[in-house]
Amino acid sequence: MEKLDNHIEWYFQSDYDLETAIDMFKSGREVYCIFMCHLSIEKALKGLLIKKTGEFPSKTHSLIYFVDKLDLELKETTYEFLFMLNKISVPTRYPDDLRKLFAAYTTERTETILNQTKEVQLWIKQQ
Question: How far apart (Å, rounded) are the C-alpha atoms in residues 127 and 111?
């Protein structure tokens, strides 16, 4: 039962982080929205790892690490999205120049990332 409870907890946290991403988007905090999108996917992947293997996830933040570890068969567009989200997680977490991030992640671009996150997170939880 502990294995089940652990993966459910990770999924619960993933949902909570996705709700936070939505709130950040609504309030115009695009950079934090993207950061929370990454965190939501990361926690969903960690939940899936526990569900599939019973193994407790490592403390890495790499989405690609978990995709590879789980040997997930993703559509190319999904893999490209996760690769991109993985790549931008560090600058959104520790920005060198926050104003540059504001320019790079417009409302439209952030909304696209948020919508893709919703789709991918749901897909992960359905595995």
Answer: 25
